[in-house]
Amino acid sequence: MTGKNLITVAEGDGIGPEIMAATLHVLEAAQADIEIQKVEIGEKVYLRGETTGIEKQTWDKIRQSKAFLKAPITTPQGGGFKSLNVTVRTTLGLYANVRPCVAYSPFVETKHPEMDVVIIRENEEDLYVGVEYRHTPEYYQALKIITQPGCEKIIRFAFEYALSHGRKKVTCFTKDNILKITDGQFHKVFEEIGKDYPQIEKEHWIVDIGAAKLADTPGAFDVIVMPNLYGDILSDVAAQIAGSVGMAGSANIGTSGAMFEAIHGSAPRRAGQNVANPSGLLLAAVLMLVHIEQPEKAALIHNAWLKTIEEGIHTYDLYREKTSRQKVGTKEFAEAVSKRLGQNPGTLPTVKYGIAKHVQHSLYQAAALIQKDLVGIDIFIQSKGHVDELAEALKKLPTDSFKLTMISNRGVKVWPQSHPETFCVDCWRCRFFQTEAGRVNHQQITKLLSALAEATFDVTQTQYLFTFDGNPGYTL
Fold first, then answer.
1. Which residues contact 28 (CB under 8 A, 6 or more apart)?
2. What range defines the domain where residue 216 resides?
3. What CATH number did the domain enclosing 411 receive?
4. What is the pLDDT of residue 322?
5. Does residue 357 lie in a domain region?
6. Residues 343 and 383 in one domain
7. Can you give the pTM of this predicted structure?
8. Angstrom distance (rounded) from CA 463 to CA 466
9. With the CA atoms of 430, 436, 440 and 443 taken in that order, what torsion angle do they form, in degrees rounded to the nearest 10?
10. Whole-angstrom distance between the N-terminal and C-terminal Cα of the chain?
11. What is the Cα–Cα distance from 281 to 284, expressed in whole angstroms?
12. What are the tens digits of pLDDT across the range 204-249?
């Protein structure tokens, strides 16, 4: 150990080793105060039988270092392999994904020359928890997980980021006109936490029209915070309309660790050809240097990169006859950046970084005690029969504690008052409420489930129905 900042580096798969070599070349040329320890993750580790793509001893090395700089990896198809990116983010509590999307007009072609948007994506929840089920031959399910603490942490982070980086507005994207409980909670927390930041402009968009606005008029936005899936999709869209996904780096920040990476994939078809653009990973390394409090080195590299782009020295993905002067490979691009260390761009704004203002990590407050009552149960049943036949059979069950009130299929109410045009599959959600006012007890539910079993109904899933202070905790 040399006393320098220890950085764990993973070269990844596909184009990963090439763009990592280019990035490390520039870091070394800039004399960044870091010590590199390399680890192996990704495809080779998957194929050795490790389903997460990362081995046990690697975790300790990552924890011991100041930051984790990771090139893209390839997840093998099939075989139950889990996303390594998701595994690292959730295991290490890297709850905030920060993706700056900046235009470099006129040197990189874009329809939005003034674009400068930062997308802050919740990094641990939503559909990315990867909890999926198959219930019947026709019916598949994925769980969307949103938690109160998860919402509070990422939304507080977004406002604190805006404050510390001189940003003026924070926008929230959700789909709470449809997902009223999950996305509705995200929106509600945004409005509540926003009150603590009167100096920051706040707004909310439904994600579909918000995405259209982002693609058409990105200058309307400054910082955008959103749940995991929307953030993943729209940060790629934003990077591409700014100029190229190949130029975008990202930071994954937690309370006790950080990972930095390009936002693009491993592009195996481009591997070994010395053509890949290393800019995304290099700019991720710039974010890393700011994070570990080396702002001068970060600015040194960033400005040299801007100078290189400004002089028209471009990799194939950016090369255009009107805006480029020289097409170069991965290695040659890194060498060009290294030669310009100490130079500043002439047209593009010069970058300056101060001492890192680490975003305050919110310590969420546990939800206040409220009255939680069990009031019914949704029971999913596999059946190929008609819904009216199913309803009549369920109403004959020998139980007086519950009443069948509704049957739905793929989220559409089909009993009572079904419509012949509604398409149905072989999995039905059957809702039972207690026949008398008051709470349901577990013994009553056990009797109901026993009655279903004795009648040979094919139950595939159950979901308890709760109210919270009298408000339904389920969709109606």
1. none
2. 111-240
3. 3.30.70.1570
4. 86
5. no
6. no
7. 0.91
8. 10
9. -90
10. 60
11. 5
12. 999 999 999 999 999 999 999 999 999 999 999 999 999 988 899 9
